[in-house]
Amino acid sequence: MQGTVASFNEDTSGEVVLDSGRRVPFDAAAFAASGLRFLRPGQRVQLDRDETGSIIAIRILTMHP
Predict the structure, then answer these.
(1) CATH classification at residue 10
(2) Residue 34's pLDDT is what?
(3) Could you tell me if 35 and 43 are in contact, meaning their C-beta atoms sit under 8 angstroms apart?
(4) What is the DSSP letter of 10?
């Protein structure tokens, strides 16, 4: 699933707007599992979710040649 970062907080939690327009929060644990250092609003990301629908990891979309 893909979305756009809407907010990124000092505690490394935040919110993503899905392509459908739905806003989905993520917690610091999901960010930590990603191995990222920072996200900026407007950045496109890929979201990994568990069976309950909770975000468990966030990945930056990259373009491959």
Answers:
(1) 2.40.50
(2) 87
(3) no
(4) T
